[in-house]
């Protein structure tokens, strides 16, 4: 009995142990399972976070690529609604006060300019000075915001992403790296703020930082918000890049040479400058814009937005505008800040009405005869006898409705200029530097060769109106441009190509290591490279300039190649003994190319306040203590103020309501010419952003936006590239003169009507690009040769031809200047890289 009890007890105890072990195993397995679940969830979270960060980085990179395109082609970006608006709300005011250096202003301060468009440098207006926390342009998203930045980013994000959980949240554009530079005006307690002082070398054009976010969203696509009303951000990444301007050369003349410019044939130049450091034979002496001296065109701003002296015993009508006599302004300078509009008609008295009694805007003065005048802000270009032939004449009226053979053509030489085969210039006494200067008011703008300057062998600095400005040939630095060409690694698409001379074959070795005849490499249409910078080295690879031992390669003579699609495109740098053609034949197909844009006077405009109702003054809030703020003077760009922020220049023209006094011929009758109506206080500008339904104000109130004076041209038809232009404006309701200025296909342009966009067709507004005309040029760009020009063919060139040696043509070549060479827009025309990315950081 005892034994059985013992065995039973043992069995019971063993059953309890098994249960305990089973429970322990179950707990262990459960814990292990939970561990695997936790690991799985962690791995899933890691994978989700990695996905979110990867998507955020990809979004930031997409935004960075768009930012690059802003600089590559601002016009394209603007037309595709990708370019930020030029709005002060996106800008930081730069404050540079550093010793004698004082500058306060915004990047691209003229609201009519496109952000990030050329010019990239020249003036402070076009340069970037900020740091990341004081960026010149800062575009930051605000959840639920209606501000300018948020609206722009909403538009950009909608174009870039179909996934609503992705968005660009911040874009900053500021100065490039400035090693050794000085930061001034740093914000207290804010790192990486302040502005770079002028001086040290800038390593590039701009720094761009783009930040993107991955957001938490609901199934319906709406963004999840936190307790503060901000979006729940799952991941955020930034991309930072530095942009540098592609160092293409700039050119400002159609033909330039350091040698003699001679020729037995009829070398004709259109639309640009002819420059020679020696003697010049001018084979097409066409009349251009009138020049008063070697520096200035006819100052047609006088008459554009001007007043003249009040005169005694003169009949005045309501609306007439005068200034106090200049003799009185000399005694009381404050009178010069006012104009006086007739509000009660009549004949003026025999004595001045006492203008000093009306030196506040809106005040009135009444003459003894009852004629009443109301004071308003003065007009910008008051006619005054301060400089004979400059400020004392309404020069605009001399140009209206006049035909000008070639407004852009002028010739300059260090030595003598002759016409054709040694014929003397008209008006030439053999020594005058400006023999046919526009010297009297009686001259006709269409009949005098005031656009020729000889003996330009020094610059007269004793006057602001010099008759001599020294001529220099713009020598291309061999070592620099060779290095630039080699930096492209000879890869197609880099736009920078280097060619080594192959003496055995008398050919050149280029991309891919291939040796080909120079004519094959030059043909950008068929060489597989396209437009770019082409550098053809010397025979021995040494510098040929300044006696450094370089040997020029044999001369290049391009002959007619019928049936081939042949054209040089971009910038070509040759080191050949000579370049020329023996005949063009049919080697180039007809196509359309832009004539130059319309002339303007770079004198600035008076800025008006935000609501567009009165002038902005500095120094005080009212006249006469305040001074008019003039914007854009002497910056080489046509400027206007986009008062209504619609992105285009809004103009208004009206028929002349008075007989206009021409200075050099019969007067202009009432109602025969159209004139731009300048901005005045309280006026209304039209909205021309959509030419299909332009919003024209009441004529009594209408005016143009503040702008620099320009001369409108009526351009020739597409098939007449050698025709001249007619100066003046036309009926805005029947703009039959409108011509296409944008190419739509081979030898075709826009079909222009009075409803066509201001960007694609000429108009009464300012046209920075001229009308399209048909040409068949073997060059679309610029050709530089360290040697000379020697050819017998009749080739056509569109762009510029620069020869360090003599320019001797026995054929009849023609050069049509492409103004984009001077403005820096050729790269956009030929789809070349305007900027390069020199630094790209994606791990931020």
Write the layout of secondary structure elements.
Elements: H1 2-72, H2 74-79, E1 94-98, E2 101-105, E3 137-140, H3 148-160, E4 166-174, E5 183-184, E6 195-196, E7 206-215, E8 233-245, E9 255-257, E10 261-263, E11 268-270, E12 273-276, E13 280-282, E14 308-309, E15 315-316, E16 321-323, H4 326-331, E17 338-344, E18 346-347, E19 364-366, E20 372-377, H5 396-399, E21 403-404, E22 410-413, E23 417-419, E24 452-453, H6 478-486, E25 496-502, E26 507-509, E27 515-516, H7 518-522, E28 532-536, E29 556-558, E30 568-574, E31 578-581, E32 591-596, E33 605-606, E34 617-618, E35 627-628, E36 630-631, E37 653-655, E38 674-676, E39 713-714, E40 725-727, E41 743-745, E42 748-749, E43 769-775, E44 779-785, E45 788-791, E46 796-803, E47 807-809, E48 814-817, H8 820-823, H9 826-829, E49 835-841
Parallel strand pairs: 9-12, 9-46, 10-47, 11-48, 12-22, 13-23, 14-16, 22-24, 25-28, 28-30, 29-31, 30-44, 31-45, 44-46, 45-47, 46-48
Antiparallel strand pairs: 1-2, 3-4, 4-7, 5-6, 7-8, 8-49, 15-18, 16-17, 17-20, 19-20, 21-40, 25-26, 26-27, 32-43, 33-36, 34-35, 37-38, 39-40, 41-42
